[in-house]
Amino acid sequence: MKLLHILPVFFLILSSCGDYKPLALGPDGKIIVFADSSLLRQAKNGLIYTLEQSITTLPQPEPLFTLMQGQPGRFEDLKQRAYLLFITTLNDSTPSGKLAKRLLSPEILEKVKTGEQNIFVTRNKYMDRQLAVFVVADTPDHLSDIIRSDSANFTNTFLDLTLRRTALDMFKRHTQPELSEKMMEKTGFSVAFQHDYVMIRDTVGPNFFYMKRIQPDLDRWLWIHWWNQPSGLFPTREELLAKQDSIMKVHIQADDSSYSETVPSPLTFKEVNFNGFYGLETRGTWRLNDYSMGGPFVTYTFYNDSLKQVFMINGSVFGPKFPEKMQFIREMEVIAKTIRFKQGKGSVSAF
After folding, report:
1. Which backbone phi and psi does 74 adopt, to 5 degrees?
2. 154 and 43 together in one domain
């Protein structure tokens, strides 16, 4: 079984001083872009393919990130924001271009001139938990191709910070370490609980754990099922969907005994490195079998080669009064990735 690795192909990470800085401001998922309008049009195809890609596995499609054009004259205020993106060229003499070149050293620009590098990343330059990405092309017509040249790394650079900032916001209030420890003793693994999650079921059925967060007009829940897989053969996508539906039919039910099921389409599958384990990420929507309600979900299935077991973690959301649900799914992703084990590989939490 091959373990996936994320290879940083073209990113140069620029260092910044280690002094204390306040936390960067602004909502997650919103990126401030400093670029002349003409260059932004040239880069548009690359941005739609990466940061602005439409996530169709939500009840209503949403962009992965929302880009908002920043004015160079307001940079002193906007440099406090969490996500900054600069798009320019070597001969860009617009205010945005001059700003980007002022922030980059001559040595960095020389790398662009020689064709060695075009994308540069700075972390925590002005604020803590901040990301500034510079895309510098030799000519405007190369901008879109540069962004798309390693789209996964370009996108994951922003996603990684988003998940870390989401985790910081989620767990800044009271957590429930006693509940995590109880889970660890019962199952040999645990996840981090926010202050208002409750344990719904931890003994019904073989190897099943279910926790829920209930708020006005918004429910979020996470369940985990695991089983022995000594051969190391990873289940097929069809087998995993059948497993997910069989679990939800028995355990994820409404008061009238209707049950959850996976909506056949749209679904996305992606092989992932899940906390060091080989895994598959599945995104889509769930619904009750009577079609009365539904919402988005994300499922991570991974093989723990230390325990010779497959783990399936499903995070689901029901919030009909909230038109945008991307952030809620990110919260479920954060909780799933806090899983740690009592012994063997994966004994340290991801966050």
Report:
1. -105, 20
2. yes
Tens-digit pLDDT profile for residues 159-213: 999 999 999 999 987 789 998 998 999 899 999 999 889 988 765 567 999 999 9
CA distance 129 to 334: 16
Nearest C-alpha neighbor of 339 from the set 305, 306, 300, 284: 300
* Same domain flag for 258 and 312: yes
Q: How many CA atoms lie within 13 A of 212 on its CB side?
A: 12
Question: 227 near 247, Cβ under 8 Å?
Answer: no
Residue 16, pLDDT score = 52
Cα–Cα–Cα angle for 294, 299, 301, nearest 5°?
155
Q: What is the CATH number of the domain that holds 287?
A: 3.40.1000.10
- Same domain as 328, residue 189: yes
Q: Cβ(339)–Cβ(189) under 8 Å?
A: yes
Burial 70-92 (b: 16+ CB within 10 A, else e): bebeebeebbbbbbbbbbbbeeb
* 346 part of a folded domain: no
* Last residue in a domain, options 170, 196, 219: 170
First to last CA, the chain: 26
The domain in which residue 103 lies consists of 11-170
Listed residues 154, 170, 186: the one ending a domain: 170
Model confidence over 125-145: pLDDT tens digits?
Answer: 999 999 999 999 999 999 999
Q: Which amino acid is at 52?
A: E
Amino acid at 35: A
211 and 158 both lie in a single domain? no
Query: What is residue 145's three-state secondary structure?
Result: helix
Radius of gyration, CA atoms only, the chain = 22
